[in-house]
C-alpha cells in the first residue's frame, strides 16, 4: 500500500514490568505509515534530499534527489520502502515492507535583490547544509557543514555510546555567522539540527518465551529473555535455572531491567506438555502457526490451534493436496487468515525447485504388485527404497517417483524410523 504523510514528531513506547513478565503479544494490529512515524526529511535549495528516518524500523528511500533549483517554494513528495517490524499482523516472515510517502517543501532560490531583503533564518541554514549531521553508535559526531557559512561553535563535541538497544534522536545547536547577501549578513545565529543515533550492536539474541506451567490461579504470561551462551530455536523447550520455558519467535524488543542475564544456567528440558508442578496447570498446550505457501510466497495462511511443540519456524509442511508451506511464526491467538490443515514435516524452508513428484509405494507385508500412490511432494523428498509410513503407522517401501499424478486414492507419508519392512 502507499500512504502519504506530512513530517511529524516521533513517538516512543515502552512496556515492561518486574520478574521478566510482560503482557502476551497480540499481533492483531497492522503496521502502517502512522506507526512508522517518519521524520527528519528535508529538501535543500539544490534539490538534495535528507532522508526521513523512523525510531522503529529500517527506512529505504526510493525517490532520487531532485537535482534542480526552484523559483518558488515547491512541495516535494519522497517515496520510501519501510520494513515492517516484528509484532504486527502484517509482519510475515520478516521481509515484508510498506510504501510510505513524505512531503517536504523545497525552498526557492532567491534572486540577489530578494536575498538582500530577506532575513537569513534556520530554514535557509538547513537548505545550505552540504554535509549532514550524523552521530555514530559510539557517539562520534560528523558535520554538519554548510558551504560559505563560518561556524563559531557547536553545543556538543560528542555523545555517549547508545546502549539503549533502540535508535535515539540527537540534537545539537550550531552557532554561525550569517553569510553575505542577506538583510542580516554578519549576525550570529543559532540553529538546531537533529539526527538519529543507531544503537550499539547488541550481542544478545532476544526471544519471546512462555513458561511451560504456572500456578492454577494465574493467567498465561509472556517474558522476554536473551542468551549469549546458547542458540535457541523457536518451538524448543529449555530450562533456565531449573524452570522450563517454551522458546517463541525472536524479537527485536528487549527489557534490560527484566532480562535473564548472563548468570542463567541453561539446560535441556522435556517438552512443555510433559512438565508438571505442584498446584500447577499446563499453559502451553496449543498454538497457531502462520504459513507461507511455497508455490507463490503468499503468507496469508495459518493452521488451526494445534500442539505448540509440533512445528518450528522454517519447518516445511504439506497439506492433503500436496501444497507445501513453511512455518514463519506462531501465536497463542489466531492470525485470522485462511486456515489450512497440514501434516508432516518434509524438510526445512521452501525448496529451490517447484517440481512435484508422486510416489508409488508397496505396503509392507502385502503381495508383490499391490501398490499405493501418494499425494504430491517436492522433488527429492523421498528416494527409492526409503521406508515410510502413513498417519496410521502403516509402513511402505518407496518404489519410484513420477511427475504424473496417479489416479485413485492417495495418501500422505513421512520417513519411518524403521530400517526395513
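-> sequence recovered:
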Amino acid at each position: 500500500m502507499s500512504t502519504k504523510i506530512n513530517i511529524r514528531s516521533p513517538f516512543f513506547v515502552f512496556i515492561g514490568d518486574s520478574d521478566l513478565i510482560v503482557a502476551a503479544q497480540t499481533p492483531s494490529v497492522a503496521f502502517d505509515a502512522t506507526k512508522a512515524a517518519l521524520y527528519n526529511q528535508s529538501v535543500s535549495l539544490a534539490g538534495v534530499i535528507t532522508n526521513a528516518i523512523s525510531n522503529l524500523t529500517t527506512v529505504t528511500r526510493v525517490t532520487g534527489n531532485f537535482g534542480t533549483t526552484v523559483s518558488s517554494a515547491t512541495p516535494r513528495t519522497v517515496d520510501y520502502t519501510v520494513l515492517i517490524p516484528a509484532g504486527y499482523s502484517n509482519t510475515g516472515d520478516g521481509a515484508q515492507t510498506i510504501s510510505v510517502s513524505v512531503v517536504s517543501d523545497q525552498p526557492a532560490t532567491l534572486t540577489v535583490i530578494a536575498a538582500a531583503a530577506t532575513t537569513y533564518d534556520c530554514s535557509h541554514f538547513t537548505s545550505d547544509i552540504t554535509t549532514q549531521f550524523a552521530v555514530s553508535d559510539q557517539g562520534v559526531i560528523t558535520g554538519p557543514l554548510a558551504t560559505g557559512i563560518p561556524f563559531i561553535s557547536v553545543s556538543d563535541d560528542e555523545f555517549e555510546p547508545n546502549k539503549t538497544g533502540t535508535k535515539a534522536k540527537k540534537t545539537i545547536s550550531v552557532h554561525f555567522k550569517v553569510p553575505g547577501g542577506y538583510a542580516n549578513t554578519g549576525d550570529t545565529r543559532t540553529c538546531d539540527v537533529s539526527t538519529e543515533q543507531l544503537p550499539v550492536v547488541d550481542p544478545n539474541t532476544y526471544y519471546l518465551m512462555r513458561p511451560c506451567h504456572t500456578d492454577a490461579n494465574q493467567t498465561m504470561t509472556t517474558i522476554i529473555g536473551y542468551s549469549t551462551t546458547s542458540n535457541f530455536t523457536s518451538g524448543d523447550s529449555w530450562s533456565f535455572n531449573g524452570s522450563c520455558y517454551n522458546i517463541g519467535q525472536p524479537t527485536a524488543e528487549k527489557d534490560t531491567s527484566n532480562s535473564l542475564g548472563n548468570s542463567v544456567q541453561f539446560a535441556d528440558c522435556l517438552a512443555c506438555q510433559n512438565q508438571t508442578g505442584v498446584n500447577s496447570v499446563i499453559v502451553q498446550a496449543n498454538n497457531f502457526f502462520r504459513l507461507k505457501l511455497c508455490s507463490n510466497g503468499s503468507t496469508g495462511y495459518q493452521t488451526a490451534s494445534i500442539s505448540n511443540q509440533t512445528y518450528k519456524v522454517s519447518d516445511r509442511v504439506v497439506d492433503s493436496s500436496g501444497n507445501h508451506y513453511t512455518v514463519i511464526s506462531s501465536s497463542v491467538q489466531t492470525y485470522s487468515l485462511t486456515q489450512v490443515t497440514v501434516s508432516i514435516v518434509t524438510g526445512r524452508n521452501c525448496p529451490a525447485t517447484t517440481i512435484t513428484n508422486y510416489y508409488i509405494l508397496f505396503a509392507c507385508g502385502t503381495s508383490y504388485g499391490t501398490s499405493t500412490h501418494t499425494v504430491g511432494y517436492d522433488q527429492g523428498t523421498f528416494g527409492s527404497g526409503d521406508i515410510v509410513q502413513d498417519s496410521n503407522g502403516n509402513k511402505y517401501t518407496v518404489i519410484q517417483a513420477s511427475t504424473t499424478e496417479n489416479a485413485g486414492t492417495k495418501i500422505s507419508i513421512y520417513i519411518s524410523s524403521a530400517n526395513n519392512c
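DSSP finds three helices and 33 strands in the chain.
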